[in-house]
Amino acid sequence: MKRFVGVFVLAVILLAAVMATATGGPYLVANPMQVTLSAGQTLTFNVQGLPSSISAANIPADPTGTYAFALDISSLPAVSGGYTVTATACLNDPVWGQKCSAASSPFSFNPASAPPIPSGLGLSVKQ
Fold first, then answer.
1. Given this structure, which CATH class describes domain 25-109?
2. Which of 38, 110, 113, 120 makes an SS bond possible with 82, Cβ 3.0 to 4.6 Å?
3. CB of 68 closer than 8 Å to CB of 45
4. CA-based end-to-end distance of the chain
């Protein structure tokens, strides 16, 4: 019985860890890039088309290599017509400075907006 409880507790802990890493986002992502960096060089990305409240300049490359970058856009407000964004990849070199690629193809999306405000609150004798 003690062994079963131990395995159950371990399973709950693992499930909680997975759930904790799965929350957050949504994220604006790009496909991973194969770039070989020399000593002192870094790769960053710039996204155009988002409000200034979103930090979309000099986004570091995704260290896991799953994506080129992953920008958290969970605080992005819904706007009429949505957003159209482009991104550039920038190689930052300590000697030559920053060299950026041409802009990506545009990507459009529309964050979900809140539902309308409930109205007509009152009492009823039936459901």
1. mainly beta
2. 110
3. yes
4. 47
CB atoms within 10 A of CB 82: 12
Q: State the Cα–Cα distance between residues 80 and 69, nearest whole angstrom.
A: 26
The tokens for 66 are 């799953």
In this structure, is the dihedral angle defined by the CA atoms of residues 60, 51, 48 and 97, taken in order, positive or negative? Answer: negative
Model-level pTM greater than 0.85? no
The pLDDT value recorded for residue 109 is 93
Q: Which tokens belong to 79? A: 């706007």
CB atoms within 10 A of CB 90: 19
User: Residue 11 pLDDT more than 90?
Assistant: no
- pLDDT the model gives residue 3: 54
Domain positions in the chain: 25-109
> Which position has the higher pLDDT, 32 or 8?
32
Q: How many CB atoms lie within 10 A of CB 47?
A: 23
For residue 95, give the nearest of 48, 41, 52, 59 by alpha carbon: 41
**pLDDT at site 84:** 96
